[in-house]
Write a structure and sequence with these properties.
- By secondary structure, the chain is α+β, with helices and mostly antiparallel strands.
- It is built from two helices and eight strands; from the N terminus they run ββαββββββα.
- Strands 1, 2, 3, 4, 5, 6, 7 and 8 form an eight-stranded antiparallel beta sheet that branches.
- β3 and β4 form a beta hairpin.
Length: 137
């Protein structure tokens, strides 16, 4: 099992506000315009799932499989050239801030791991960047 982790990011909103926003994927409407349109062809979501077409990877569909309020949201791929699990951890940092970290775990043979390690790590960091930009309410 291969594990990829984003750097830990501080967010100046409460753990509960961040969890509540991220655990309902329909809230992504707020950040849709901040996504790099040259890398995305399709972007659709509802409360529990997210479908995104990423160049050159192809279509990826993630579904929330577990919500552990207010600290963790777990996802699983339903459609992907590379099946994986992902989760977002949300940890309090005082009363008005929190920290997040994204993790992906996938069964990869050494050859595939070598090919996807850099793009997957960079992708996780970009998602973490985007999550820092959201105005959590």
């Amino acid at each position: 099992m291969s594990t990829f982790e984003s750097s830990i990011r501080e967010i100046q909103f409460t753990q509960t506000a961040v969890f509540n926003t991220l655990s309902d994927l329909s809230n992504l409407e707020r950040v849709k315009d901040k996504l790099p349109q040259d890398k995305l062809e399709q972007f659709a979501f509802d409360k529990d799932s997210l479908t995104i077409s990423v160049n050159p990877v192809g279509q990826i569909k993630l579904r929330i499989i577990e919500r552990e309020a207010p600290k963790c949201i777990k996802f699983e791929t339903e459609e992907s050239p590379l099946p994986f699990n992902m989760w977002i951890q949300v940890v309090p940092l005082g009363e008005k801030a929190c920290k997040i970290k994204l993790t992906i775990k996938a069964e990869l043979n050494p050859f595939i791991k070598g090919m996807v390690k850099k793009p997957l790590s960079e992708g996780l960091e970009k998602v973490a960047d985007m999550l820092q930009l959201i105005q959590y309410e």
